[in-house]
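During the reporting period the student researcher (J.K.) took over the structure-prediction task from the postdoctoral fellow and processed the backlog of single-chain submissions. One of the processed entries is reproduced below for the supervisory committee.
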Amino acid sequence: MKILLVRPPRIKQAITLSDFMFSEPLGLEMIYGALKEEHEVEIFDMMIEKESLTVKINEFKPELVGITSLCIDVIKVLELCKETKMVDSSIITAVGGTQAYFNLEGFYNDNVDYIFEYATKDNIKEFFASLNNGVTTLIDGIRSRVSAYSSTGKKGKNEYMLPYRSSTAKYRHEYSYFGYRPAAIMEFGTGCEKVCDFCIRWRIEGAKEKLIDLELTKKDLADIKEPAIMFIDNDFLCNEEKLTAFINMVKELNLKKNYIMYGSTKGVILYEKYLKILSDIGLKALLVGYETFSDEEMTNYHKKSSTKDNLKVSEILRKYKIDVWASFMAHPDWDKNDFKLLRKYIKKLKPQITTISPLTPFPSLPLYKKYEDRLLYGKEDYEKWSFGQVMIKPSKISLKNYYFELLKTNLYVNILVNKNTEMIRKYGIKNILRITIGSLKAVKKYMVLMNEAKNY
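J.K. obtained the following structure tokens:
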């Protein structure tokens, strides 16, 4: 069977991290790897491609088009399914990704033939066997339109399969992570026991941390050509077993690469003894969720650390020359003084890169119920749920002033706190210009939103 796997284009009006980083479609590369032996498969990355899906379909003539989705992509995915059917109504359409896992009802549509809640080698194999036999049966993790999107009732999670990275060879020079370009992404372990109240990742992967099969990981790590790798594990510093397995693998393979990881403040403190080794073998930066200047908010978020821990972590990472890419969440109950306190706190922490996002109570999370009566948009306003737009009506200042404080704080940290000269030296002027352009795009979007907010 000829199969076209599609990543939708960027949602232009959304404020997302894609303005600063642009990762490969890892999930599609895994699906490609699972299908390539028995099918003719191609990946069509519409975040890069200039031509339309119609042109690509007419050129490739697929029998099935599979489209991945993030939280904000529902409308665009439905448009792409409709476009596919308009070209040739006999083409099978299948959708999957984050949104299909959390809110698959958004894809109940006449142009969507199948919805993958999750994908594993087993249900993919069973799915294509049923297509070949022409028999429609209920399959774990897969809903079909002809069966009124019924389910077997069996819950599951996406299986981490070996990605076939050559499938995106023509795009790989574009993939980046902040100052690193080109950069690959991969996962070393799944799950997260931190279970922070605002996080959707552990709800997708589970609350128990597990290593991915080490032979699979070793093969993937050895095959990556890019000089930089971003590990997308929720917390790479979760236990000694994981850290020692990674360190030993890098040494065994004699890899000379730059690594970026997510790391918890708790992990930095508990496993400080491994940080020098990690730095020596290539760890350049940790993405750390400092979240807030308020210990009360840290407790409410179910964070297992304090604001004092954050300050300690900043000192530890400076000692081992590991950059900090810090993230914070702006609470909807902040006033102007709270934003001022945040700016002072960030100045104390001195991170190399800082991102500040409004607290987003994603549909299906407990936070959604908590703030439901203050939501500015409904859960069907998919393109708003980008984790960059204000979704909860501020309680102490107007929405316009809230956006102004967000904008002012972002400009403050990017111009006066972040180590711009140091970043230029490390990453080169071209990469810093790319990040700066992304920042300017975000500023422009915030200014538009601030102007629109005058009606609230």
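The committee noted the following: The mean pLDDT is 90.
J.K. will present the remaining backlog at the next meeting.
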